[in-house]
Protein backbone atom coordinates (compact mmCIF):
# COMPACT_ATOMS: atom_id res chain seq x y z
CA UNK A 1 0.00 0.00 0.00
CA UNK A 2 1.43 3.39 -1.02
CA UNK A 3 1.77 6.26 1.45
CA UNK A 4 -1.11 8.05 -0.25
CA UNK A 5 -3.34 4.97 -0.01
CA UNK A 6 -2.32 4.40 3.60
CA UNK A 7 -3.06 8.01 4.53
CA UNK A 8 -6.51 7.75 2.93
CA UNK A 9 -7.31 4.47 4.71
CA UNK A 10 -6.00 5.76 8.06
CA UNK A 11 -8.21 8.84 7.79
CA UNK A 12 -11.17 6.63 6.89
CA UNK A 13 -10.54 4.27 9.83
CA UNK A 14 -10.16 7.12 12.32
CA UNK A 15 -13.46 8.55 11.16
CA UNK A 16 -15.21 5.19 11.41
CA UNK A 17 -13.84 4.45 14.87
CA UNK A 18 -14.74 7.93 16.14
CA UNK A 19 -18.25 7.45 14.77
CA UNK A 20 -18.70 4.07 16.45
CA UNK A 21 -17.19 5.36 19.72
CA UNK A 22 -19.82 8.11 19.71
CA UNK A 23 -22.60 5.62 19.02
CA UNK A 24 -21.44 3.36 21.84
CA UNK A 25 -20.20 5.71 24.56
CA UNK A 26 -22.44 8.78 24.07
CA UNK A 27 -25.64 7.59 22.38
CA UNK A 28 -25.61 4.10 23.93
CA UNK A 29 -26.78 2.81 20.53
CA UNK A 30 -24.00 0.76 18.88
CA UNK A 31 -24.33 -0.17 15.22
CA UNK A 32 -21.67 -2.89 15.02
CA UNK A 33 -20.56 -5.80 17.20
CA UNK A 34 -17.45 -5.59 19.36
CA UNK A 35 -15.58 -7.99 17.09
CA UNK A 36 -16.15 -5.69 14.08
CA UNK A 37 -14.99 -2.68 16.08
CA UNK A 38 -11.88 -4.55 17.22
CA UNK A 39 -11.02 -5.43 13.61
CA UNK A 40 -11.18 -1.76 12.60
CA UNK A 41 -9.08 -0.77 15.60
CA UNK A 42 -6.39 -3.39 14.94
CA UNK A 43 -6.22 -2.40 11.26
CA UNK A 44 -5.65 1.21 12.25
CA UNK A 45 -3.00 0.25 14.80
CA UNK A 46 -1.16 -1.79 12.19
CA UNK A 47 -1.25 0.98 9.57
CA UNK A 48 -0.06 3.60 12.06
CA UNK A 49 2.81 1.31 13.08
CA UNK A 50 3.79 0.88 9.41
CA UNK A 51 3.53 4.62 8.73
CA UNK A 52 4.76 6.51 11.83
CA UNK A 53 4.99 9.68 9.73
CA UNK A 54 1.17 9.70 9.75
CA UNK A 55 0.94 9.72 13.56
CA UNK A 56 -1.72 11.95 15.12
CA UNK A 57 -2.08 12.58 18.86
CA UNK A 58 -5.87 12.70 18.40
CA UNK A 59 -6.04 9.26 16.81
CA UNK A 60 -8.43 6.86 18.59
CA UNK A 61 -5.48 4.54 19.18
CA UNK A 62 -3.88 7.14 21.46
CA UNK A 63 -6.71 6.95 24.01
CA UNK A 64 -5.11 3.98 25.76
CA UNK A 65 -2.52 6.19 27.46
CA UNK A 66 0.99 7.36 26.65
CA UNK A 67 4.06 7.73 28.87
CA UNK A 68 3.57 9.12 32.40
CA UNK A 69 3.81 12.89 32.68
CA UNK A 70 6.64 14.38 34.74
CA UNK A 71 4.25 16.71 36.59
CA UNK A 72 1.25 18.95 36.12
CA UNK A 73 1.72 22.24 34.30
CA UNK A 74 -0.45 25.17 35.30
CA UNK A 75 -2.98 26.64 32.89
CA UNK A 76 -4.55 30.07 33.18
CA UNK A 77 -8.15 30.02 31.99
CA UNK A 78 -8.84 32.69 29.37
CA UNK A 79 -12.27 33.18 30.93
CA UNK A 80 -12.63 32.57 34.64
CA UNK A 81 -14.52 29.41 35.66
CA UNK A 82 -16.82 30.91 38.28
CA UNK A 83 -18.27 29.11 41.25
CA UNK A 84 -22.04 29.17 41.72
CA UNK A 85 -24.34 31.38 43.74
CA UNK A 86 -26.02 29.03 46.24
CA UNK A 87 -29.73 28.89 47.00
CA UNK A 88 -30.19 26.44 49.85
CA UNK A 89 -33.96 26.04 49.34
CA UNK A 90 -36.89 27.32 47.31
CA UNK A 91 -37.27 30.47 49.42
CA UNK A 92 -33.69 31.47 48.69
CA UNK A 93 -34.24 30.50 45.06
CA UNK A 94 -37.18 32.92 44.90
CA UNK A 95 -35.02 35.66 46.43
CA UNK A 96 -32.33 34.97 43.81
CA UNK A 97 -34.94 35.30 41.06
CA UNK A 98 -36.06 38.62 42.51
CA UNK A 99 -32.48 39.90 42.28
CA UNK A 100 -32.21 38.66 38.69
CA UNK A 101 -35.48 40.35 37.69
CA UNK A 102 -34.35 43.59 39.33
CA UNK A 103 -31.08 43.42 37.37
CA UNK A 104 -33.09 43.00 34.16
CA UNK A 105 -35.42 45.96 34.80
CA UNK A 106 -38.26 43.75 35.97
CA UNK A 107 -38.00 41.13 33.20
CA UNK A 108 -38.51 37.52 34.29
CA UNK A 109 -36.09 35.43 32.19
CA UNK A 110 -36.18 31.85 31.05
CA UNK A 111 -33.70 29.48 32.71
CA UNK A 112 -31.61 26.59 31.44
CA UNK A 113 -31.49 23.92 34.16
CA UNK A 114 -29.51 20.74 34.67
CA UNK A 115 -28.53 18.45 37.55
CA UNK A 116 -25.46 19.60 39.50
CA UNK A 117 -23.10 16.73 38.84
CA UNK A 118 -20.67 15.79 41.59
CA UNK A 119 -17.38 15.33 39.78
CA UNK A 120 -14.24 17.18 38.72
CA UNK A 121 -14.73 20.37 36.69
CA UNK A 122 -12.57 20.43 33.54
CA UNK A 123 -12.22 22.73 30.54
CA UNK A 124 -11.38 21.18 27.15
CA UNK A 125 -9.99 23.47 24.44
CA UNK A 126 -10.53 22.74 20.74
CA UNK A 127 -8.88 24.51 17.83
CA UNK A 128 -10.32 23.87 14.36
CA UNK A 129 -12.21 20.92 15.80
CA UNK A 130 -9.25 19.19 17.43
CA UNK A 131 -8.61 18.75 21.15
CA UNK A 132 -5.43 20.66 22.00
CA UNK A 133 -5.60 21.08 25.80
CA UNK A 134 -7.59 20.15 28.88
CA UNK A 135 -7.25 21.64 32.37
CA UNK A 136 -8.95 21.32 35.74
CA UNK A 137 -10.93 24.24 37.13
CA UNK A 138 -8.44 24.79 39.94
CA UNK A 139 -9.27 28.05 41.70
CA UNK A 140 -11.24 29.31 38.71
CA UNK A 141 -8.32 31.37 37.39
CA UNK A 142 -5.57 28.73 37.19
CA UNK A 143 -5.94 24.97 36.84
CA UNK A 144 -3.72 21.99 36.07
CA UNK A 145 -3.11 20.65 32.57
CA UNK A 146 -4.54 17.13 32.36
CA UNK A 147 -4.71 16.68 28.58
CA UNK A 148 -2.83 13.36 28.73
CA UNK A 149 -5.53 11.87 30.98
CA UNK A 150 -8.56 13.45 29.31
CA UNK A 151 -7.58 11.86 26.00
CA UNK A 152 -8.32 8.49 27.62
CA UNK A 153 -11.95 9.40 28.50
CA UNK A 154 -13.84 7.40 25.91
CA UNK A 155 -16.91 9.63 25.48
CA UNK A 156 -14.86 12.83 25.07
CA UNK A 157 -14.50 13.80 21.39
CA UNK A 158 -10.89 14.11 20.27
CA UNK A 159 -12.16 15.73 17.07
CA UNK A 160 -15.50 17.52 16.86
CA UNK A 161 -18.28 16.09 14.75
CA UNK A 162 -20.58 17.56 12.11
CA UNK A 163 -20.54 20.67 9.94
CA UNK A 164 -19.80 24.19 11.14
CA UNK A 165 -17.05 23.19 13.57
CA UNK A 166 -15.92 26.29 15.53
CA UNK A 167 -12.44 27.69 14.97
CA UNK A 168 -12.04 27.88 18.76
CA UNK A 169 -14.20 26.32 21.45
CA UNK A 170 -13.64 25.90 25.18
CA UNK A 171 -16.05 23.25 26.44
CA UNK A 172 -16.63 23.08 30.18
CA UNK A 173 -17.96 20.05 31.95
CA UNK A 174 -17.63 17.56 34.74
CA UNK A 175 -15.62 14.33 34.78
CA UNK A 176 -17.86 11.80 36.51
CA UNK A 177 -18.28 8.10 37.05
CA UNK A 178 -21.66 6.41 36.77
CA UNK A 179 -22.82 4.82 40.00
CA UNK A 180 -22.94 1.32 38.51
CA UNK A 181 -19.43 1.76 37.07
CA UNK A 182 -18.17 3.05 40.42
CA UNK A 183 -19.60 0.05 42.27
CA UNK A 184 -18.01 -2.31 39.75
CA UNK A 185 -14.67 -0.51 40.09
CA UNK A 186 -14.73 -0.83 43.88
CA UNK A 187 -15.67 -4.48 43.59
CA UNK A 188 -12.64 -5.07 41.35
CA UNK A 189 -10.43 -3.08 43.73
CA UNK A 190 -11.52 -5.26 46.67
CA UNK A 191 -10.94 -8.44 44.69
CA UNK A 192 -7.35 -7.33 44.04
CA UNK A 193 -6.85 -6.30 47.65
CA UNK A 194 -6.46 -2.64 46.66
CA UNK A 195 -7.86 0.53 48.20
CA UNK A 196 -11.55 1.26 47.53
CA UNK A 197 -12.85 4.74 46.81
CA UNK A 198 -15.16 6.67 49.13
CA UNK A 199 -17.47 7.91 46.36
CA UNK A 200 -17.61 8.39 42.57
CA UNK A 201 -16.42 12.00 42.80
CA UNK A 202 -13.21 11.03 44.57
CA UNK A 203 -12.63 8.18 42.12
CA UNK A 204 -13.08 10.45 39.09
CA UNK A 205 -10.96 13.30 40.47
CA UNK A 206 -8.22 10.94 41.61
CA UNK A 207 -8.10 9.26 38.20
CA UNK A 208 -7.73 12.52 36.25
CA UNK A 209 -5.02 13.78 38.61
CA UNK A 210 -2.74 10.78 37.99
CA UNK A 211 0.60 11.34 36.29
CA UNK A 212 0.33 8.01 34.48
CA UNK A 213 -2.49 8.16 31.88
CA UNK A 214 -2.79 4.37 31.89
CA UNK A 215 -4.45 4.69 35.31
CA UNK A 216 -7.12 7.02 33.93
CA UNK A 217 -7.51 4.83 30.84
CA UNK A 218 -8.37 1.85 33.07
CA UNK A 219 -11.15 3.74 34.90
CA UNK A 220 -14.76 4.10 33.63
CA UNK A 221 -14.71 7.91 33.35
CA UNK A 222 -17.17 10.11 31.48
CA UNK A 223 -17.15 13.79 30.54
CA UNK A 224 -20.48 15.63 30.77
CA UNK A 225 -20.48 19.05 29.09
CA UNK A 226 -22.51 21.78 30.82
CA UNK A 227 -21.33 24.95 29.06
CA UNK A 228 -18.57 26.80 27.25
CA UNK A 229 -15.93 29.46 27.77
CA UNK A 230 -14.55 31.23 24.72
CA UNK A 231 -16.03 30.41 21.32
CA UNK A 232 -15.36 31.47 17.75
CA UNK A 233 -18.25 30.03 15.80
CA UNK A 234 -16.93 31.30 12.47
CA UNK A 235 -19.05 34.39 11.85
CA UNK A 236 -22.25 36.17 12.94
CA UNK A 237 -24.50 33.67 11.16
CA UNK A 238 -23.29 30.98 13.53
CA UNK A 239 -23.30 32.95 16.77
CA UNK A 240 -25.41 31.63 19.63
CA UNK A 241 -27.73 33.88 21.62
CA UNK A 242 -28.99 31.50 24.33
CA UNK A 243 -27.70 28.79 26.64
CA UNK A 244 -30.18 26.38 25.03
CA UNK A 245 -28.63 27.04 21.59
CA UNK A 246 -25.15 26.50 23.01
CA UNK A 247 -26.10 23.16 24.55
CA UNK A 248 -27.79 22.03 21.33
CA UNK A 249 -24.62 22.90 19.42
CA UNK A 250 -22.42 21.13 21.98
CA UNK A 251 -24.55 17.99 21.61
CA UNK A 252 -24.31 18.13 17.81
CA UNK A 253 -20.54 18.43 18.07
CA UNK A 254 -20.44 15.07 19.86
CA UNK A 255 -20.53 15.79 23.60
CA UNK A 256 -22.59 14.02 26.22
CA UNK A 257 -24.56 16.42 28.41
CA UNK A 258 -26.20 16.10 31.86
CA UNK A 259 -29.27 13.83 31.92
CA UNK A 260 -32.57 15.68 32.12
CA UNK A 261 -31.24 19.16 31.26
CA UNK A 262 -33.91 21.42 29.78
CA UNK A 263 -35.28 24.93 29.30
CA UNK A 264 -37.73 26.32 31.88
CA UNK A 265 -40.05 29.24 31.14
CA UNK A 266 -39.53 30.88 34.53
CA UNK A 267 -38.84 30.49 38.23
CA UNK A 268 -41.92 28.34 38.86
CA UNK A 269 -40.87 25.69 36.32
CA UNK A 270 -37.38 25.67 37.82
CA UNK A 271 -38.89 25.00 41.25
CA UNK A 272 -40.90 22.11 39.82
CA UNK A 273 -37.78 20.76 38.12
CA UNK A 274 -35.94 20.92 41.46
CA UNK A 275 -38.70 18.86 43.09
CA UNK A 276 -38.65 16.30 40.25
CA UNK A 277 -34.88 15.87 40.48
CA UNK A 278 -35.01 15.64 44.28
CA UNK A 279 -37.67 12.91 44.07
CA UNK A 280 -35.85 10.91 41.37
CA UNK A 281 -32.33 11.52 42.59
CA UNK A 282 -31.68 7.98 43.85
CA UNK A 283 -32.48 6.49 40.45
CA UNK A 284 -30.20 8.81 38.45
CA UNK A 285 -27.16 7.18 36.81
CA UNK A 286 -24.67 9.66 38.28
CA UNK A 287 -24.15 11.35 41.66
CA UNK A 288 -25.72 14.80 41.88
CA UNK A 289 -25.89 17.30 44.71
CA UNK A 290 -28.29 19.96 43.50
CA UNK A 291 -29.73 21.68 40.45
CA UNK A 292 -28.00 24.39 38.39
CA UNK A 293 -30.10 27.17 36.85
CA UNK A 294 -28.66 29.63 34.34
CA UNK A 295 -30.38 32.62 32.76
CA UNK A 296 -30.98 31.43 29.20
CA UNK A 297 -30.27 34.63 27.26
CA UNK A 298 -26.56 35.33 26.80
CA UNK A 299 -27.05 39.11 26.64
CA UNK A 300 -28.99 38.87 29.89
CA UNK A 301 -26.17 36.80 31.39
CA UNK A 302 -23.66 39.47 30.45
CA UNK A 303 -25.85 42.20 31.92
CA UNK A 304 -26.13 40.28 35.19
CA UNK A 305 -22.54 39.04 35.39
CA UNK A 306 -21.83 36.43 38.07
CA UNK A 307 -25.44 36.54 39.33
CA UNK A 308 -26.75 34.83 36.16
CA UNK A 309 -26.37 31.29 37.52
CA UNK A 310 -27.11 29.54 40.78
CA UNK A 311 -27.22 26.14 42.38
CA UNK A 312 -30.21 24.97 44.38
CA UNK A 313 -28.87 22.62 47.04
CA UNK A 314 -27.09 20.90 48.67
CA UNK A 315 -29.45 18.01 49.12
CA UNK A 316 -30.60 16.51 52.38
CA UNK A 317 -28.25 13.73 53.48
CA UNK A 318 -28.72 10.23 52.07
CA UNK A 319 -26.77 7.13 51.21
CA UNK A 320 -25.63 8.84 48.01
CA UNK A 321 -24.68 12.20 49.50
CA UNK A 322 -21.19 13.30 48.48
CA UNK A 323 -19.09 16.41 48.95
CA UNK A 324 -20.29 19.21 46.65
CA UNK A 325 -17.87 21.04 44.37
CA UNK A 326 -18.99 24.32 42.84
CA UNK A 327 -18.18 25.27 39.30
Domain unit count: 2
Order of helices and strands: HHEEHEEEEHEHHHEHEHEHE
DSSP strand tally: 11
Sheet with the most strands: spatial strand order: 2-11-10-3-9
What amount of the residues lies in strands? 15-25%
Mean of all residue-level pLDDT scores:
85
Distance between the termini: 50 Å
CATH class of the largest domain: Alpha Beta
Q: What fold name stands as the CATH topology of the largest domain?
A: D-amino Acid Aminotransferase, Chain A, domain 1
Structure commentary:
This protein is of the alpha+beta class and 327 residues long. It has two domains: 3-62, Helix hairpin bin (Helix Hairpins, Orthogonal Bundle), CATH 1.10.287; 84-312, DNA ligase/mRNA capping enzyme (D-amino Acid Aminotransferase, Chain A, domain 1). 36% of the residues lie in helices and 20% in strands. The chain contains ten helices and eleven strands. The longest helix has 24 residues, at 3-26. The model is unreliable at 315-327 (pLDDT under 50).
Amino acid sequence: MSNKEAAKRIEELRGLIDYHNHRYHVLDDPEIEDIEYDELFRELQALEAEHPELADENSPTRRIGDRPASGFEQYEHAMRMYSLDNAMGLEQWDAFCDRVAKGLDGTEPKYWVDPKMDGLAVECVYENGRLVMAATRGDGHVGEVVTHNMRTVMNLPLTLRGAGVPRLLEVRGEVVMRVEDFERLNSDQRARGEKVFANPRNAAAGSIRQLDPKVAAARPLRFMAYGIGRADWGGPLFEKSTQAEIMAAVTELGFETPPGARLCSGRGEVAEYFKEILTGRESMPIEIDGVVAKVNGLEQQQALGFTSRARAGPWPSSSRRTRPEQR
